[in-house]
Design brief:
The protein is mainly beta and 147 residues long. The protein has a single domain (22-145), classed as Lipocalin (Beta Barrel). The chain has one helix and eight strands; from the N terminus they run αββββββββ. It has one helix spanning 2-19; strands spanning 29-32, 38-44, 50-57, 87-96, 99-107, 112-122, 125-131, 138-145. Strands 1-2-3-4-5-6-7-8 form an eight-stranded antiparallel barrel. A hairpin with a 5-residue loop joins strand 2 and strand 3 (50-57).
Length: 147
């Protein structure tokens, strides 16, 4: 009897893990960045990869009342484009078990583009790793699903 109760308890405790199983398109939707100062909307492209665009910025207007622009872009011609609705993630490809690789992420804070990959431990958490060259030389940020 004790053995049967133990098995039942283990099954009940594992149910949330089964319910949180991540499927391929669960990455789509709106995500708060780690500092919760912006929201990125991740969407599936016609080619089947995943991109992300900046759809909300906590401080979207500068001190002069103008939209925040891409002032740190290394290409001087692009420094006046608004950050709002800018696609900053491109080319993420689903690989296996809630992981996505092969993408690029543009960081408007420093004007640099990094390689990126994503792991989703559950449907409401996204761990995005930006890196140069190899993944070991990078930084991971945790994003949460926006409601």
């Amino acid at each position: 009897m004790k053995h049967l109760l133990s098995i039942a308890l283990i099954l009940v405790l594992c149910l949330p893990l089964v319910a949180q199983k991540v499927s391929k398109d669960d990455i789509t939707g709106k995500w708060y960045t780690e500092k919760k100062d912006s929201i990125i909307q991740i969407f599936k492209t016609e080619a089947g990869s995943y991109n992300g665009k900046l759809v909300w910025i906590k401080e979207a207007i500068d001190k002069d009342g103008k939209p925040i622009v891409d002032k740190n872009n290394p290409d001087k011609k692009l420094r006046n484009r608004p950050l709002m609705n800018m696609v900053i993630i491109t080319g993420l490809e689903y690989k296996k078990k809630a992981s996505y690789e092969g993408g690029k992420i543009y960081n408007p804070d420093d004007g640099k583009t990094y390689n990126c990959k994503v792991e989703m431990p559950n449907v409401n958490t996204l761990k995005l790793r930006g890196f140069v060259g190899v993944s070991v030389l990078g930084k991971t940020n945790t994003w949460t699903r926006a409601k």
